[in-house]
Amino acid sequence: MNKLKEYKEIILNLIKLSLPILGGNISQILISFADNAVAGRYSTVALGAISVASAIVMTITIGAIGLILSVSPVISNFRGQNIPSKKYFKLTILFSFLVSIPFFLILELILKHIDLIGLSPDMVNYVKEYIAICAWTIFPVAIFVAIKEFLQAYEKVVFANVVMLSMVVVNLILNIVLTFGFNFHSIIIPAMGVKGLAISTLISKTLATVLILLYCIPLFKTSFEVSKKYLKDLFKVGTPISAAIFFEFLGFNLTAVLIGKFSSLFAAVHNIILCIANCTFMIVLSVSNATSIKVGYYNGKKDKENIIKYSIANIFIVLLICVVSFLILGFFSENVISIFSNDIEVIELSKKILVFAMAFLFFDGVQGSCVGILKGLKDTKIIAFTMLGGYLLIAIPIGIYLAYQKGIVLEGFWMGLSLALAFAAIVTSSRVIYNIKKM
């Protein structure tokens, strides 16, 4: 009975820590939705242009973010070892800024050679405009994520995520004003179109960073110390995370492109199922991040018992999320799909693919929960190889074979994705068990 009570408290602790993080994750989806909605209202060409341009910017930016995501598990481990860590706050900001520079230069290089991609002529100038401005967002984004991760390590998760949610409103207002223009008495802001969308993104991300820097003024009073061990741990933990996210992005983008070659119907259905899967995974990701903080802290303390307890609680919550998702998708599939489209053909085909999506969600949930544990244990190398093997060696080849050789297109690609995540779930869960046994 006491054990059940203890697990109940642990589960509640994880949920309490996860909820603000979930709010921050949802804000990313809402900002992207607002950008696309405003761009679509401006013109179809603008919508297509920012879809391409934002995908390019995000794919490169994610490389820097992946490295910075190591801050939280590393600092959590230091806390568990009773190593004073607040003295690394300034070094963390410097690290995030320096890490951003090579990725910014990559974006500038892409911008110079954007014509080689072979985009539609009516989109090229818009794409250039957007990337030229949004490339600069990599610096405030990197600093914001670094500080957010640093605060998360101390289980301070509310302020940063509230700021992210507030930026949804700020970004939407700026999008409308700068894209379509504003004229009220003596205040006149000209319509800027796509350039306005890019400027609003830069302003909102910079403002978020300024706010979190102001919040952290007390931390600036701490001493500045360069630690080779800290930097080494950041690269050791962060490099595989960065590579894993890149391979995942690459895998999904390649799948979307290949499916789009068959028909717009298949592309539409794929995007709908992916949106549904992403909504569920955002919840899993929040629990995973919370778990990495807790496991990191107890890993620093060499407290095997609490590592196991938080790992079990993490997997329990994730499986519960999967069960609830399955029930919703099973009983209300048509209602959920109709949020995205009223086309009968799209709805019927989407319902068929949901079976594979459910398998994908289950395996993605398991591997996501295990990744959170592995981050806390500072054992992330396996994650990069898992994503490489899963997406590029399993998902894409199986999808191509079934689509091109057997004529099974959507089902084929989603079967490949499901098998890739099954592989990832087996590998990551095996690695978690290995680590716990080794303690």
Structural description of this entry:
The chain is mostly helical and 439 residues long. Helices cover 84% and strands 1% of the residues. It has 16 helices and two strands. A two-stranded antiparallel sheet has the order 1-2. A hairpin with a 2-residue loop joins strand 1 (182-184) and strand 2. Helix 1 packs parallel to helix 7 (158-180), helix 1 (2-42) packs across helix 12 (304-331) and helix 10 (228-260) packs antiparallel against helix 11 (264-300). The model has no long low-confidence stretch (mean pLDDT 86).
Measured as a percent range, the helix fraction is over 70%
Q: How much β-strand is present in the residues? A: under 5%
Order of helices and strands: HHHHHHHEEHHHHHHHHH
Rg, nearest Å: 22 Å
Question: What gap, in angstroms, lies between the N and C termini?
Answer: 27 Å
Strand order of the largest sheet: 1-2
Low-confidence runs: none
Q: Please, what is the average pLDDT?
A: 86
Number of strands: 2
Instruction: Output the number of helix runs.
Output: 16
Class based on secondary structure composition and strand pairing: mainly alpha
Dominant shape = globular
Biggest pleated-sheet summary: 2 strands, antiparallel
Short synopsis of the structure:
The chain is mainly alpha-helical. It has helices at about 1-40, 45-70, 70-80, 90-110, 120-135, 140-155, 160-180, 195-215, 215-220, 230-260, 265-300, 305-330, 335, 345-375, 380-405, 410-439; strands at about 180-185, 185-190.
